[in-house]
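Workshop exercise sheet. Pairs work together: one partner reads the sequence aloud, the other fills in the structure field after running the prediction. Swap roles for the next sheet.
Pair: D.N. / O.F.
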Amino acid sequence: MDWTGLLAWSIDQKKGEKFDTSIKPMDEETKKWLYEALQSYSVDEFQMIKDLLDKIAKPELEDEEQQRLEWFEQLMELLDALDRANDFCKLGGLRLMFNYFQTTKFDSIKLSTLKIIQNCNQNNAFVQEYCGENNYLQLLLQIEKINNLKVKEQLISALSSIIRGECLKNKRRFIDMNGLQILLNHLDSNRCIEKIANLFRDLLYYDDQLHKTYHDLSKFSNTAGQSIKQQDKKNYNLTTDINDELLKSNELPENQKYQGIVKKILIDLKFLNYSNKFIFDTSIKTSDLRIQFLSCSIILLKVQDDQEFKKIIKTHLDNLIKEQDKDDGEINLCKQIL
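Structure field:
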């Protein structure tokens, strides 16, 4: 786009001793030029994404790591700025990212593909459903092949972004793949543990709803608002068009086995015993990790009590209180457990 020309045109409109505050109709020639300039800017951005995908799709050469990293960085910047994750899916961009992750020999590029996958899925129901339908949760199985710790941590983040939130179908797919068991075999760093505990916390939050087709049926409802005379308040009367057929389809018999399944699996896997890997570190730098784990523990202890674990938490709490820098939220969680 000719930004210099646009700036010159804007300045030219303000020339004169007095600023003219009147609104004048734009002549057709100027209107056409401005419309085409803005349109070309939008098209150029979209075309840039397509061009970058075309470059990335070509076979990777031995000496191309730096060049390809630059392409991925440009792609991430465009996607972040334009919020075009849905369009990126339709262009085949996510499919290319998943395939490229499995074929590239460069760990730096593996990291880039995973970051793009994560960013596109974050809080985006359309992309999450797209990834689930296209079997991209198979990304989980790649974790066994990864030796680079940073790549493993980023893979867990990307995987989590596909699963977390209200896409219950993806949660069920993950469970069917023995995802909980697989991830518990990869607590290779504090960051891995924190990311995995954060995902488990989300799964536990939705655990009692996992048998449902939709977590929230309000999207099928009508809301009628009625103003009360001479008052600022409104009386909201809710009317729904949720029929018996929809309610029935929301709790299919074949999905009943998933209700409460996360708690059962984690208890069977003795999830609370994994606290020995980190709970004795009371430093503030690992408090987020412990908070995620303790939040999961509170939910599990409501199902099955564990006095040995509570003894560990009591010792941890006593040590935590002695620390100069401590997280009050973590202290509160420990007290809830006890």
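Discussion prompt: The radius of gyration is 26 Å. What would you look at next?
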